[in-house]
């Protein structure tokens, strides 16, 4: 570390004075704190992964569709639902539906306004909302039997991204960043993009550190401006900024040595250093202007309705190439209590081509096999209508009792379906899975054992999946 003499004149004078025993002990403590800090920064910048078994994936991209896409309108077609449109739920099915508030059991059944067709060699049926993603269906493992008990957006998003509805635990991205470290020395290990934030408000817990050290939380990135506040101020040169940060670090280290262990201060020191490195590397990483015209078109960046999410998907690929461990793309607005046809068409129009482009681009660059891609929301929607609306104005209510997600890449065996819901799409009747099971599977893909990835909090060894989940072995063939 450079000497901060130019910023602290008394430092030179103090160094020349005779050292008392108290001064010696204090400076020795500061030196030990500096050693510990150096080790911490090295770990944050590029520590060796601590995987518990050979990893199938090195990175993860979570495509989180906030609001709750309807499973019977996307990846879980129900022919009987089409036949019973407008009729009450049959008693034989209604008695098996859990007593969940707002479940819509007493409403009339609603046929999906979208058609389904088979794609690829696997012949998996995909809604006409996703014609481009459908072309990549042989890369997808569709899980049709996800379920939990939280029918409200905020807590539902928390359970989908952290494991509990309370919002006080680390996000899965933070756990992965903590467990494996960051491959990149110049970029955060966990990056988050937000798009179309209409509808349910983004839950900060979804990228927060919870009780883990603050340095593992996600960094929210603006898709137009990149990482905020990383541009070099006009009044500074690289040298003057380095001198300034050296002085700030010296003061923070001194304070840290006096006060003892402090996660927030340690994270702040690390963030200053990372921020300095990002001032040279981040602008280039988030500048997609150098990508070929064909690549930009592949992601839909040449079309108004797909440009924003397409750019985020392209930046996700670039971040994977630069060693960022976990990328979360949150696309909101899927909450279709009314006019589900218009709502889901608008949301799929904005995301289908970019997502298919991401899968195709990762595959052609040899990155898909080492990148786990996950698609899904916080819950699904009822097979019934909500309220008394008719025609195109009909919508669906929340339903966490049964919904679909899909996974691709990262060692996943594509072209398969796991689990099933009943003939109307209410609840799982085969291989029901919880968010904890999905999280355990994601961790497994990255080589992490949920039961060995622990952090002591309030005298308890906490694990990412709270009480444990089942690794869905079939996902990997």
Can you tell me about this structure?
The protein is of the alpha/beta class. It has a single domain, classed as Alkaline Phosphatase, subunit A (3-Layer(aba) Sandwich). 36% of the residues lie in helices and 14% in strands. It has 13 helices and 16 strands. Strands 6-5-7-1-8-11-4-12 form an 8-stranded mixed beta sheet, sandwiched between helices. A two-stranded antiparallel sheet has the order 2-3. Helix 2 crosses helix 8, helix 2 packs across helix 9 and helix 11 packs parallel to helix 12.
Task: List its traits.
477 residues; alpha/beta; Alkaline Phosphatase, subunit A; two-stranded antiparallel sheet; 16 strands
Give a quick rundown of the structure.
With about 475 residues, this protein is of the alpha/beta class. It has helices spanning about 10-15, 20-45, 80-85, 90-95, 130-135, 155-160, 170-180, 240-260, 265-285, 295-300, 305-320, 340-365, 435-445, and strands at about 60-65, 115-120, 125, 140-145, 190-195, 220, 325-330, 370-375, 380, 400, 405-410, 415-420, 420, 430, 455, 460.
């Amino acid at each position: 570390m450079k000497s901060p003499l130019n910023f602290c004149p008394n430092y030179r004078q103090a160094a020349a004075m005779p050292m008392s025993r108290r001064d010696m002990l204090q400076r020795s403590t500061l030196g030990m704190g500096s050693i510990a800090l150096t080790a911490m920064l090295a770990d944050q910048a590029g520590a060796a992964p601590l995987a518990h078994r050979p990893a199938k994936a090195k990175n993860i991209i979570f495509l989180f569709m906030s609001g709750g896409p309807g499973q019977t309108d996307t990846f879980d077609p129900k022919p009987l639902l089409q036949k019973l449109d407008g009729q009450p739920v049959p008693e034989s099915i209604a008695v098996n539906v859990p007593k969940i508030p707002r479940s819509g059991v007493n409403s009339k059944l609603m046929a999906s306004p979208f058609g389904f067709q088979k794609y690829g060699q696997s012949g998996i049926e995909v809604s006409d909302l996703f014609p481009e993603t459908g072309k990549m269906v042989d890369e997808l493992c569709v899980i049709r039997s996800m379920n939990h008990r939280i029918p409200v957006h905020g807590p539902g998003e928390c359970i989908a991204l952290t494991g509990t509805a309370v919002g006080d635990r680390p996000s899965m991205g933070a756990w992965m960043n903590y467990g494996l470290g960051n491959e990149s020395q110049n970029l955060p290990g966990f990056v988050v993009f937000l798009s179309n934030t209409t509808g349910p408000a983004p839950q900060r817990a979804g990228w927060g550190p919870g009780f883990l050290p603050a340095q593992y939380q996600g960094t929210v990135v603006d898709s137009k401006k990149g990482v905020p506040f990383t541009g070099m101020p006009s009044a500074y040169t690289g040298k003057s900024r380095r001198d300034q940060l050296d002085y700030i670090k010296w003061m923070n280290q001194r304070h840290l040595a006096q006060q003892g262990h402090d996660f927030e201060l340690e994270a702040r020191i690390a963030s200053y250093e990372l921020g300095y490195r990002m001032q040279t590397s981040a602008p280039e990483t988030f500048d997609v202007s150098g990508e070929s015209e064909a690549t930009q078109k592949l992601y839909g960046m040449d079309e108004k309705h797909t440009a924003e999410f397409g750019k985020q998907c392209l930046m996700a690929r670039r971040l994977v190439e630069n060693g960022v461990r976990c990328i979360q793309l949150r696309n909101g607005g899927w909450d279709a209590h009314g006019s589900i046809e218009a709502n889901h068409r608008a949301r799929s129009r904005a995301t289908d081509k970019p997502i298919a482009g991401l899968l195709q681009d990762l595959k052609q660059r040899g990155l898909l096999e080492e990148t786990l891609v996950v698609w899904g929301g916080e819950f699904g929607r009822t097979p019934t209508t909500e309220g008394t609306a008719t025609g195109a104005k009909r919508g669906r209510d929340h339903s966490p009792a049964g919904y679909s997600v899909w996974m691709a890449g990262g060692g996943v065996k594509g072209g398969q379906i796991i689990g099933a819901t009943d003939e109307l799409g209410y609840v799982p009747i085969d291989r029901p899975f919880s968010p904890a099971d999905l999280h355990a599977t994601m961790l497994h893909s990255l080589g992490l054992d949920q039961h060995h990835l622990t952090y002591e909090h309030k005298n308890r060894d906490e694990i990412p999946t709270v009480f444990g989940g089942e690794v869905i072995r079939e996902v990997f063939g």
